[in-house]
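thread: overnight batch results

M.L. [08:02]
morning all. the overnight job finished for the chain we discussed friday. pasting input first so we're all looking at the same thing
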Amino acid sequence: MTLQELMFGFDRVRLAKPSDNAEILELYESQAMNSGGLTLSYSRKGDFFRFTKHQGKKSFTFLFCNSNGSIGGLATYVLSEGWIEGSVKPMGYMCDARVSRDADKETKEEWRRFYVHTVMNSHLVEEFEYCEYMFSAILDANKIALRAFKREESPLEFSPSQKYQAFQVMGKKWFRSKPSPFNVRKIAAHERQKLYDFLQLANRKKSLGFTGSELSRRETNWNHFSWESFLICTDSEGHWLAVTAPKSFSDSRSLVVEKATPTILLLSHLARLFGGPSLKENQELETTYLTHLEFAPHLTSETRLNCVGSFIDLLFTDIVTKKGHLLSFYWPAKEGVACHRALSKYLIQSTSGTYYQIYPKTRADKLRLFSDLTDISFEVGLA
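M.L. [08:03]
and the structure it wrote out:
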């Protein structure tokens, strides 16, 4: 089956073209979400398609048109690859799901039907590389999206693979604290192969871990990113404990604070006293992510969080205080992160979400099902 055959019978569906960019942005950036007293939207910095090149090796954005030809909805499927049961297999990630409130009724209905049709048949589609594994990340507060996707009568299973929290470091409660027992430094030129081996060992042991070719793709497609971007956390004897690569995607996507409660605006101004950025309405919220945050396999959760604290200790002044960025990292849910002794000195805000596996109920016995895990390889900055 080809993409054209997949779309057969859906008269309002077509693939997006570069010339659609302006109209796509108008719909995409007009829809906001509420989170903890903030009304937030996303900006794609004038080019909707640039961020999808960061997300995966190929992507397909489907547009859903009204009777007058205008765009009433969209959805993107990003293709990458990862380790599944010891083999490298294609994986799909569904994102950018948007439907205009003013869309025709028929357009809204076709959006729902085509989403189901696509997931039901993705394993047959040539351009999807016969992808059997489809995923999506949704914030737990996004009740509208959850209601739209998690319908009992649907032929699709929308199964929680992993609950997670995204943490944003916004300031520092106190500047004098017990020094970290670990050391953080930049990677040296002769350690490049050791870095690749460390990353691959960590990802071969994880669910949906990324591959060496995916790392090479990121080095090619991510601006200002290479093996030289990595930081290494070591113990007193120089043994590698953890690695990460701080990365901002603000050249292609950022959050915009559309509205904030007076209390939050006051607190954000006070945050400057703690070395953090202040929020303003209609301001873009820049974020630097701890990407490729990987650990030596023998480490306890306690030691891993000490490593995270060591990375933040090194980066805080430059990233948060000087650049005014939030510093963000991802962690499995159900662990006390913000109150951990290595992180309790910081002002940290958290957002809860769930990484879902989406699959046809009729194919459940043919697939590896990922359910209630804590080790999924997931870059929250690309969600």
